[in-house]
Design a protein that fits this description.
With 185 residues, the protein is mainly beta. It has two helices and twelve strands, in the order αββββββββββββα. The chain has one domain (23-176).
Length: 185
Amino acid sequence: MRNTSLLLVVVCFVTLGCEVGTSVRLGAGPSFHFDGSGRLVSFRIYGPRSGRKIATPVDAQSLMWSIERAPDAPSGVLVSGIEIEYGKVPRGYLQKFPNTGAALPLAIGQVYVFDAVTTGAPGANGFVYMGQNRPIQINVPGLCGSSSLSDVKPVKCGTNEPYIEPRNIEQFVRENRLSKLTRGY
């Protein structure tokens, strides 16, 4: 059965040019293990703003670390099989933030956003809670960033109402933990 499935995937790619959306599995560190048919353009981690526990998606003012494909690798590397460890720049990429030095440290008890931009297939993004023993991939239902590019605010999706963080973050993480793969917020 496994060989048949693999053969179908190969036939799909070769004859039909199928896209397989990017998926991410979280590992210790944190590290991000990718799969899919696209090519990685950039990868970013965003942190919560001061006084908050949960990062707002794509909030440029809370960027913790980012990489982009190197000029000599204009199409990026195939995501299938890529592993990115936080703060370590993989071959074919350049660190864009911080401009110099190491990635900003991640704090235990905080929720971070990761965002992988790809070409040739949909990218991936999601939330990571830094637990005492290991990072945990979670869902944060209803959290979106406002449409203001200059100052993104956490809002309830589909509204301009402020997003109110849960009082008990550990309970929230237990209730919203993802089991294996993440394809989006």
